[in-house]
Amino acid sequence: MGQPVKLSDELVADARIAGATMQRSIAGQVEFWASLGRTMERLMTGTAIAHSKATSTPQSIAESLEAVNQPLGRERVAAYLGSRPFPRFSVDPADRRIFIREDADGTRTRGRVVGRSFRPLIDEAEAAAG
Fold it and tell me: Residues 125, 115: contact at Cβ < 8 Å?
């Protein structure tokens, strides 16, 4: 049986936004976040938890969404993507419909994403030769 719990308006608003994208109710989203927190608490040492609390600055989902198409938001996305393992993807500045895949060896390949898969573009020179 569930128990009533008081939650801040900000947490409820964030849960509403996040839950809608994942097709969860507000309660379902809060329970999901709680289960993630419980799992992380088991995995982290007390020192790691203290460090995480001291260095993190919580930001609401609404605040994060407002920054998406702003310079700071673009910088955050670029920093996050730069921290991810290879291959990495970016948008071709000359043609925003084209993506560039960068492999660990530095190879850069232009292409498109089709059906969730990257498809390299065939250069006109290669097409004429092949």
Answer: no
pLDDT of residue 124: 52
Tell whether 80 is covered by a domain.
Answer: no
Q: What is the pTM of this model?
A: 0.41
Q: Where are the beta strands (DSSP E) in 12-107?
A: 88-91, 99-102
Q: How far apart are CA 56 and CA 58, in angstroms?
A: 6
Yes or no: say if 46 and 60 are a contact pair by the CB < 8 Å rule.
no
- Whole-angstrom distance, CA of residue 59 vs CA of residue 57: 6
Say how far apart CA 26 and CA 8 lie, in whole Å: 13
Q: Would you say residue 48 lies in a domain?
A: yes
Residue 77: per-residue pLDDT: 77
Token digits of residue 17: 């936004």
